[in-house]
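Researcher: We plan to redesign the surface later, but first we want a full-length starting point. Tokens attached.
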């Protein structure tokens, strides 16, 4: 959820030319975005509880790889489209990341209903 909110907050910044309003929105978006980090880490750990160490190692590697890739994409967007294009590209990639995360993770709170609790046919 925080990825979607932060991505959506980048869109108006792309079209604002007031520094103080833009900075306020960026700080507010960063504050909201930071709330999602512990929840995403916890959800990542719940995907394979039997191999938590391996999963956190992979998570760290991919996070670092994503930061480097994001900088390269951001630099290219800035060179090609200016700051408006950079912010819109960043917002789009935030939404793509949220979609990938949403489709590839399973909610650990949703469990299958045991057979003993299923309604019996008449």
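Model: Full-length starting sequence:
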């Amino acid at each position: 959820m925080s990825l979607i909110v932060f991505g959506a907050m980048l869109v108006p910044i792309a079209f604002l030319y007031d520094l103080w309003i833009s900075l306020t929105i960026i700080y507010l978006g960063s504050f909201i975005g930071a709330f999602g980090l512990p929840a995403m880490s916890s959800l990542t750990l719940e995907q394979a509880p039997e191999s938590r160490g391996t999963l956190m190692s992979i998570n760290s590697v991919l996070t670092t790889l994503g930061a480097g890739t994001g900088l390269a994409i951001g630099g290219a967007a800035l060179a090609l489209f200016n700051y408006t294009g950079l912010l819109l590209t960043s917002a789009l990639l935030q939404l793509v990341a949220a979609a990938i995360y949403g489709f590839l993770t399973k909610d650990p709170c949703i469990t299958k209903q045991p057979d003993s609790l299923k309604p019996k046919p008449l």
